[in-house]
Specification:
mainly alpha; Amino acid/polyamine transporter I; 69% helix; globular; auxin signaling pathway
């Protein structure tokens, strides 16, 4: 009788929980591919027309495809490391950092954490810049419509960065990340919305009465006519960084794979999801990049919606920019919450007896409910948002910052760690053909990262010569 009850208990346990004690996962390759697409298609698409214009009809699409194939390949390597040591029956790695810690350990884990959190902080700064210039673009678009395109309609970014920061300070006081799930869904819808508007406006411009007037070339912007030879070189490097930023989604692969149900095996389902998502994403990127270049030619703006290649219909341009702002309000929180949690967990462990760091006070808010207030959380999160806003105000250069973020995150998070994880897990012999091949791939991507970083830094330095912060 006792053994029968025990058997029943095990059946109930297995029906509600997975092998690691977590609640039963229900994700499929379809839901996983949807998560990847919504995580990837973001503000990076806004710079792709400019990036293709710097590189031309041959190098532009080629680099887009090369980055797509490399990202797909290294994502496959990551999916096989979700369970360790066996890819089907091994112990789960719930996060990217946990995977690096469990398989590589030591200095590699510290390097991974540094790369991840640098990227998270940088992305918050980049999103503050992008959101503010989209808000400025709405104001300027209405000004152009009212007074004509010949009017300068100058508007300062500063007040709009402050507005975005105030919004983020308020939202960041929500104590639990899962309470932001609705905001994340809205953000995903917005990203599809403005990407689709950008594609639609490009097609309309190509098909319009000015068709044929946009000058393009096989090698992109022309030296001596559009840019100097030095500008051509640095802009091309920066464009590579912009494309790399658009493909930096490997760091969320592990977390998404952790939502999949155990059967069929997670690595097989995840490979299917990654293939589908990467194909959809690449199609979107090629449409945005190539149609944007066709529409604007070598004069393609750095940002689809804020460079004013599109003036009319002004209301649709406004909607596109509004979608960008709403998306980035949610996206900022998605990328910032891990930074919040890191510092708050550290403070709780460092001062466990301090009421300031650990105690929560329940405050009733009419028509909202009960808010859990914590002094450390309020001050730390507010200070962090102010910090990213100040840096964004000092360096409000969309393409340069996006390129730099892409350069810093692509090689370590998308290429280096997936390759090293796979080599250790599969015990690939040193100097075997496979070992040499993936090491050469990593070295190539490292060089590309350095080139993109140099181009982006020079672009930022050049912009700083004519920009005065806080004025």
């Amino acid at each position: 009788m006792g053994s029968h009850i025990e058997a029943q208990g095990n059946d109930v346990y297995s029906s509600k929980f997975d092998d690691d004690g977590h609640s039963k996962r229900t994700g499929t390759w379809v839901t996983a591919s949807a998560h990847i697409v919504t995580a990837v298609i973001g503000s990076g698409v806004l710079s792709l027309a400019w990036a293709v214009a710097q590189l031309g009809w041959i190098a532009g699409p080629s680099i887009l495809l090369v980055f797509s194939v490399i990202t797909l390949f290294t994502s496959f390597l990551l999916t096989d490391c979700y369970r360790y040591p066996d890819p089907v029956y091994g112990t789960r790695n719930h996060t990217y950092k946990a995977m690096v810690k469990n398989i590589l350990g030591g200095i590699q884990y510290q390097f991974c954490a540094l790369a991840q959190y640098t990227n998270l902080v940088g992305t918050g700064i980049g999103y503050t810049i992008t959101a503010s210039i989209s808000m400025v673009a709405i104001k300027r678009s209405n000004c152009f419509h009212k007074y004509g395109h010949q009017v300068e309609c100058q508007v300062s970014n500063g007040p709009y960065m402050v507005l975005f920061a105030v919004t983020q300070i308020l939202i960041s006081q929500i104590p639990d990340f899962h309470e932001l799930s609705a905001l994340s869904i809205i953000a995903a819808v917005m990203s599809f919305g403005y990407s689709s508007i950008a594609i639609g406006l490009s097609i309309a411009k190509i098909a319009g009465e000015n068709h044929g007037m946009a000058k393009t070339s096989l090698t992109g912007v022309i030296v001596g006519e559009d840019v100097t030879s030095q500008e051509k070189l640095w802009n091309s490097f920066q464009a590579i960084g912009n494309i790399a930023f658009a493909y930096c989604f490997s760091q969320v692969i592990v977390e998404i794979q952790n939502t999949l149900k155990s059967s069929p095996p997670e690595n097989g389902a995840m490979k299917k999801a990654t293939t589908a998502a990467c194909s959809i994403t690449t199609m979107f990127y090629i449409l945005c990049g190539l149609l944007g270049y066709s529409a604007f030619g070598n004069k393609a703006p750095g940002n689809f919606f804020t460079g004013f290649g599109f003036y009319e219909p002004y209301w649709l341009v406004d909607i596109g920019n509004a979608f960008v702002v709403v998306h980035l309000v949610g996206a900022y929180q998605v990328f910032t919450q891990p930074v919040f949690q890191l510092v708050e967990s550290w403070a709780g462990e460092r001062w466990p007896q301090s009421k300031f760091t650990t105690k929560e006070y329940r405050v009733g808010i009419p028509m909202v409910g009960t808010y859990r207030f914590n002094g450390f959380r309020m001050i730390w999160r507010t200070a962090y948002v102010i910090f990213t806003t100040v840096l964004a105000t000092m360096f409000p250069f969309f393409n340069g910052v996006v390129g730099l973020l892409g350069a810093f995150s692509f090689w370590p998070l998308t290429v280096h760690f997936p390759i090293e994880l796979y080599l250790v897990r599969t015990k690939v012999p040193k100097f075997s053909l496979l070992w040499i091949g993936v090491k050469l791939l990593s070295a190539f991507c490292f060089i590309v990262t350095l080139v993109a970083a140099v181009g982006s830094i020079i672009g930022i330095v050049t912009d700083l010569k004519t920009y005065h912060p806080f004025k």
